[in-house]
Fold each of these.
Amino acid sequence: MAKIIRPQRAGASSVQSAPNKKAAKAATPLPKRAAGKAAKKPAKKIAKKIAKPKPWTAAEVYEVFDRFRKANPEPRGELEHLNPYTLLVAVVLSAQATDAGVNKATRPLFEIADTPEKMLELGEEKVREYIKTIGLYRNKAKNVIALSEKLIAEFGSQVPRTRAEIESLPGAGRKTANVVLNMAFGEHTMAVDTHVFRVGNRTGLAPGKTPLEVELGLEKVIPTEFMLHAHHWLILHGRYTCLARGPRCEVCLINDLCRWPEKTV
Ligand code: SF4
């Protein structure tokens, strides 16, 4: 039996930096006369001004990822897995669930079923039992069995290496394909989850209304040398520092570069 891969937790990303004077200035209430003038301006014009922060330069983007790399040279995802197949299953199970919740369920499951054949042998009902603490578990159990059948029938029991083939598996979408291609096969893909979506938008690195827009935007601006780990740096940054509620801007190692008008430094 292979050993469970227990990924590292986030690296320390708590470099204190000098408070951002511009942001502080921006956060200062307008003097009465100026505020009066602003109030007369059409709301649309003001919104436009706020929505267009200074574009990032290539040097600034490089600086951000260089800092991430120095703080955490080998970032790892937090979904536990044993091989590409168990990684695929874990990612399919992780939709609308936390990595910690998925790990709790998959630890005993993968101990007895770490190949498509063993998963089929276990059967849908038992798989359902193992994963019943995860949201949407009935449908997910169905998908795990169906994708295992398809892997055996069409891919020689191996996880395929192309996006189209992975996306053809039941329960697997673009994000699943990106995670598997990146973590199992070292491809320079960018999986956009809720954390990456938030960080891409807040920082202004790759604003977008959809995960695909953010994904393509990030791929465009991030230098190739950082692409292998960029996905994990951004996820970990969003999960532990740039929190959805109450981002920890005061300990954020890119707070001087971040374009979010509401940052608290
Ligand atoms: S400064 Fe604040 S908003 Fe900007 S990336 Fe850091 S934690 Fe997020």
Amino acid sequence: MIDIHCHVLPGIDDGPTTKVEALALARACVADGITHVVATPHVFPGRFDNHRAGIAQLCMKFRQVLVAENIDLELSFAGEVRLSHEVIDMVQRGEIPFLGEVDGWRTMLLELPDAQIPLGSINLVRHLAGIGIRPVLVHPERNKAIMDKPERVEAFVDEGCYLQITAASLVGQFGPRVSVAADFMLKKDWVNAVASDAHNLVGRPPRMTEARHILEQRFGKGYAEELTYFGPARLCGREREKLAVPS
Ligand SMILES: [Fe+2]
């Protein structure tokens, strides 16, 4: 499986604090059936002041650590960008760590706040589209306004946003309202990827295999494969024809 949203890099956000913890999470990813993980530290001005160059450097260093430890896990990077007016300036300054490119559009993980959909969110998405960027909205099912009315996501889908649901939401870790919202989006066929959003081994481990089994049981093997492998690969900018069929 390809995991496009994981806080696996050490000491950069609310993921692992130390290299040892980060290695433990990387091993847990492998054990969970993940072959390629995209390290996506928070990019949240004023809270986690991360940007492309710093994340790239840490990713390179951690990749060497994985090799030294014989951990067979492909590692790339992007960032979980918090929705704010600062995003536009960051794009212009080249500070956004993009996920990849799809059909000429750059893709970027975009996170809403927990409680509401801020006024102007759709305008920001439109502005991004105007400069060739398509957001991947991360875990919309965990946003309270969307939990109240999951159809609120449609406005983002209509503007070309991709959607990423979190594995633990399908498993039920965040409660029934989150699962119901995730289910609504799956049934509408709005979802492009399921990702771990793992932060650690205790409260936020990967859980991709469990989520994949649930998808298989409810929607069939093909759909489960699409959301855990081909869809994520596409959002990273990989062509389907060049991908191996997952085991
Ligand atoms: Fe995250």
